[in-house]
Design brief:
Number of strands: 2
Distance between the termini: 56 Å
CATH topology: Four Helix Bundle (Hemerythrin (Met), subunit A)
Structural class: mainly alpha
Helix content: 55-70%
Oligomer: single chain
Radius of gyration: 22 Å
CATH class: Mainly Alpha
Length: about 160
């Protein structure tokens, strides 16, 4: 555990995870977000219909926005991780002097770890937003009993 003092009481934070474990968790969370988006679309009314008196389209749209933010954030984080890995490989091949590489490597790894820390905090916040928005609004969402009621609920 690393201990940091940031102007207040001592706070203890866990050390950053390895990039490969963060990458695998981001890869797992991105399709989960897509599945949550399609799950949300099984409820009536569909987002395209704009809602009705019983279910506000804005409620469903708000939940959908949180879920989409999770999926988009995971995809963006994976792209940034791959960009850092590419930069690492390119610079390693370009640097012929070992001392120069060691200096540059430390800076590059510090940037990578900062980005990974930012990614994990953002994913955690997105997951909390999704969980809170679903739990707060689940009573407003209902499934349609049949195709006829789906059509009736749309108008």
């Amino acid at each position: 555990m690393a201990v940091f003092r940031m102007g207040g009481p001592r706070r203890t934070f866990p050390r950053p995870r390895r990039p490969s474990s963060i990458r695998s968790r981001a890869r797992a969370a991105s399709p989960a977000g897509v599945k949550l988006e399609s799950w949300l679309n099984t409820y009536t009314p569909p987002l395209a219909s704009g809602g009705n008196v019983g279910v506000s389209g804005e409620v469903q749209d708000g939940v959908y926005a949180h879920i989409h933010g999770l999926s988009a954030g995971c995809s963006e984080a994976l792209h940034r991780m791959l960009g850092y890995e590419k930069e690492y490989a390119v610079q390693r091949t370009k640097c012929t002097d070992e001392r120069t590489w060691q200096r540059f490597r430390g800076t590059l790894e510090a940037n990578m770890l900062h980005d990974l820390g930012k990614t994990t905090l953002q994913m955690h916040a997105d997951l909390l937003n999704v969980a809170n928005s679903i739990s707060n609004n689940l009573s407003h969402l209902r499934t349609a009993a049949s195709e006829e009621s789906k059509l009736a609920a749309m108008y």
